[in-house]
């Protein structure tokens, strides 16, 4: 059985042509989180919306998040102990928490403190992989690898691929399907 997949875009969303939008056409049981304002990356609001969505689910799901969406998803899972609602995660090109404040993107609020101190970072207790890029402008490669380790996730080195978005040439992306299928296989093995 294929788990339900929740797609969580990052700051400014995942428009047509983005790999997350393509991904939604690849699995019949995929939903995109709807109640988030993608132009206002406010961690507390995003995390609360993800928590609310997960609370309403009757079966565990796989979360596929990108950029700031990774930060919001990991915060939601860790803060509310929602491991029973999440069977696995695929975090792709996470954004650095230093680039955001409690009010939004740091460029808009340069005098505010970053969310790094309020973000709940600890082992998530779920299966998962973090896809990292060696030249991602949104998070340094070494920091991304450390974050994956802190969360208890596998690290998948995608190479020099930018932020893994439309600007870096990532529309249809069959490799992401293989990564999700692998997570689903691991989940099934753990259930049996």
From TrEMBL:
Coiled coil: none annotated. One of its GO terms (molecular function) is hydrolase activity. Gene3D superfamilies: alpha/beta hydrolase. It comes from the Bacteria. Pfam families: Ser_hydrolase. InterPro entries: AB_hydrolase_fold (IPR029058), RBBP9/YdeN (IPR010662). The keyword Membrane does not apply. Keywords: Hydrolase. SUPFAM superfamilies: alpha/beta-Hydrolases. The keyword Hydrolase applies. This is Alpha/beta hydrolase.
């Amino acid at each position: 059985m294929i788990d339900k997949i929740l797609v969580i875009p990052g700051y400014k969303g995942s428009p047509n042509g983005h790999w997350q939008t393509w991904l939604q056409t690849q699995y019949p049981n995929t939903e995109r989180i709807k109640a988030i304002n993608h132009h206002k990356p406010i961690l507390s609001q995003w995390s609360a919306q993800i928590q609310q969505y997960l609370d309403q689910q009757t079966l565990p799901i796989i979360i596929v998040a990108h950029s700031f969406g990774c930060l919001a998803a990991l915060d939601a899972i860790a803060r509310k102990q929602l491991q029973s609602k999440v069977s696995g995660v695929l975090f792709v090109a996470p954004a650095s928490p230093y680039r955001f404040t409690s009010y939004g993107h740091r460029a808009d609020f340069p005098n505010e403190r970053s969310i790094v101190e309020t973000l709940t970072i600890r082992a998530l207790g779920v299966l998962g992989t973090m896809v990292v890029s060696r030249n991602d402008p949104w998070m340094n490669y070494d920091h991304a690898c450390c974050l994956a380790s802190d969360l208890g996730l596998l690290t998948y080195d995608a190479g020099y691929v930018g932020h893994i978005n439309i600007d870096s040439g990532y529309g249809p992306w069959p490799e992401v399907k293989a990564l999700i299928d692998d997570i689903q296989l691991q989940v099934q093995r753990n259930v049996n």
